[in-house]
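// run 5 | inverse folding | seed 20
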């Protein structure tokens, strides 16, 4: 009898001790590796939705593997907040250990030289390294545009434009710098090219420096004004001369696009380009696509627009009724895919200007009695947004 009681007491004490040490005697469910990965995928999906993740503006590629309760994350991202939030949420999964191998861009391999300044009149940015022509062009940059370098592959850099857009750029067409060097370049007076194009010369009355002209919207340091000529500094330290009438002087680069102009100014910029052929990915006087055209015209007027039509549809004040349109409003159309895929600028009197894939920059009308009436675009009209107050 004494022996049986002793054994019973011992078993009871042992059970209490085991339970207190956190050893689970119950059949509580343990997640399998497949379930861990599935739960991680759900968390990533929710995170991307909450942060309104867009691969055109943010790098976020993460792979997931699980083994014996360890979740290994590999990949890269340009958004520190998303990475930190992802790790925090995954770490809260019961019984899972997270190993973080996600690279935060800019890549450490770039060192301190994570800035680039475009040193050619027009630079195509591509969808991947080595592919930046034709349908592979995602957008364009002008000479003097500043980009952030995120990573390098075979002489090409994934860069973030000043408008937030991503693309791959040929490194040979960039002046690459660290922050102090860039700050030095950006200090002092700046010139904005206000003519559609400015011919770059080696000196007053000298030879052409580039095979292309500088395009409207180009910003470069202003060295001096010499009579009818402006002497500009190139990103790689060289110099170029353009006619003084082709530029406007500003005390600093920050002030170049700081002045908010009215709708008539934006419309005047747009009308300069009537007849210019359409260019896929185009954002310059050599050719525009629809959203590249609206983005550029508004930028010249001091207003920031995101790069693509569906992005621009998220900006400004929605105009519900077409009769309430005012000159300068953005008008959107649903063309080759669901949602806003084409955009133009309302001119008034039922007319709008846009860069069409078949017409180039053209003026069309919503009025069936107008010779410029576009039945197709009238039917595909989606709505409008007001950017200019």
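// decoded
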């Amino acid at each position: 009898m004494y022996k049986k009681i002793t054994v019973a007491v011992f078993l009871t004490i042992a059970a209490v001790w085991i339970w207190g040490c956190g050893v689970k005697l119950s059949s509580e469910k343990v997640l399998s590796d497949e379930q861990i990965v599935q739960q991680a995928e759900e968390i990533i999906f929710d995170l991307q939705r909450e942060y309104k993740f867009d691969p055109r503006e943010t790098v976020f590629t993460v792979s997931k593997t699980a083994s014996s309760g360890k979740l290994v994350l590999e990949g890269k991202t340009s958004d520190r907040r998303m990475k930190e939030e992802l790790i925090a949420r995954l770490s809260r999964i019961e019984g899972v250990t997270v190993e973080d191998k996600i690279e935060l861009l800019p890549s450490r391999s770039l060192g301190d030289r994570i800035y680039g300044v475009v040193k050619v009149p027009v630079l195509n940015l591509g969808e991947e390294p080595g592919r930046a022509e034709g349908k592979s062009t995602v957008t364009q940059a002008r000479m003097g545009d500043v980009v952030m370098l995120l990573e390098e592959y075979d002489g090409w850099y994934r860069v973030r434009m000043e408008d937030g857009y991503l693309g791959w750029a040929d490194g040979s067409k960039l002046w690459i710098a660290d922050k102090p060097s860039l700050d030095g370049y950006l200090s002092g007076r700046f010139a904005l090219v206000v003519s559609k194009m400015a011919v770059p010369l080696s000196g007053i009355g000298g030879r052409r420096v580039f095979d292309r002209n500088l395009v409207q919207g180009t910003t470069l340091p202003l060295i001096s004004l010499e009579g009818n000529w402006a002497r500009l500094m190139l990103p790689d330290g060289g110099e170029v001369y353009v006619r003084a009438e082709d530029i406007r002087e500003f005390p600093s680069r920050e002030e170049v696009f700081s002045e908010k102009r009215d709708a008539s100014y934006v419309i005047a910029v747009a009308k300069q380009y009537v007849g210019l052929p359409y260019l896929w990915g185009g954002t310059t006087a050599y050719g525009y696509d629809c959203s590249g055209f609206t983005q550029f015209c508004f930028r010249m007027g001091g207003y920031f627009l995101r790069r693509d039509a569906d992005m621009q549809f998220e900006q400004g004040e929605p105009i519900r009724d077409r009769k309430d349109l005012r000159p300068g409003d953005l008008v959107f159309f649903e063309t080759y895919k669901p949602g806003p895929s084409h955009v133009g600028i309302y001119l008034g009197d039922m007319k709008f200007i846009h860069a069409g894939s078949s017409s180039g920059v053209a003026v069309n009308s919503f009025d069936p009695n107008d010779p410029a009436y576009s039945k197709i675009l009238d039917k595909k009209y989606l709505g409008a947004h007001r950017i200019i107050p």
